């Protein structure tokens, strides 16, 4: 689990398969919040502690990949090869 206020670290946590608690009131990665990979906790100490406890109990897998499978370069190369 990662706790951060950094937009970049929020997305990096996803790529490493780690839940992220966001200590801000808004995020640019709303899809990760919608998928329950990231959690908005603001600067609320009680909310941070409670969310850490709840997330620590989960065994959720990061099975939905909103950014694709990581093979875009291969697909592009195959496309270019065939034109």
Present the secondary structure layout.
Blueprint: E1 2-4, H1 7-15, E2 20-22, H2 30-34, E3 38-40, H3 45-57, H4 72-81
Parallel strand pairs: 1-2, 2-3
Q: What would you say this structure looks like, in words?
A:
With 83 residues, the protein is mostly helical. It has a single domain, classed as 3-Layer(aba) Sandwich (Rossmann fold), CATH 3.40.50.2000. It contains 4 helices and 3 strands; from the N terminus they run E-H-E-H-E-H-H. The chain has helices at residues 7-15, 30-34, 45-57, 72-81, and strands at residues 2-4, 20-22, 38-40. A 3-stranded parallel beta sheet has the order 1-2-3, sandwiched between helices. Helix 1 links the parallel strand 1 and strand 2 (20-22). The longest helix has 13 residues, at 45-57. It is elongated, with a radius of gyration of 16 Å. The mean pLDDT is 94.
Radius of gyration: 16 Å
What is the CATH first-level class name? Alpha Beta
Structural class: mainly alpha
Number of helices: 4
Mean pLDDT: 94
By CATH, the architecture is named: 3-Layer(aba) Sandwich
CATH superfamily: Glycogen Phosphorylase B
* Alpha carbon gap, first and last residue: 45 Å
Let me know the number of strands: 3
Q: Walk across the major sheet and give the strand order.
A: 1-2-3
Percent helix = 40-55%
What order do the SSEs take from the amino end to the carboxyl end, as H and E? EHEHEHH
The largest β sheet comes out as: 3 strands, parallel
Number of domains: 1
Which range does the strand content fall in? 5-15%
| Broad shape | elongated
CATH topology: Rossmann fold
């Amino acid at each position: 689990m990662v706790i951060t206020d950094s937009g970049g670290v929020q997305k990096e946590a996803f790529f490493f398969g780690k839940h992220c608690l966001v200590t801000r009131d808004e995020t640019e990665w709303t899809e990760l919040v919608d998928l329950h990979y990231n959690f908005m906790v603001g600067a609320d100490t009680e909310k941070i502690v409670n969310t850490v406890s709840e997330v620590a109990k989960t065994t959720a897998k990061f099975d939905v990949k909103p950014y694709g499978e990581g093979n875009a370069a291969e697909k592009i190369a195959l496309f270019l090869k065939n034109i």
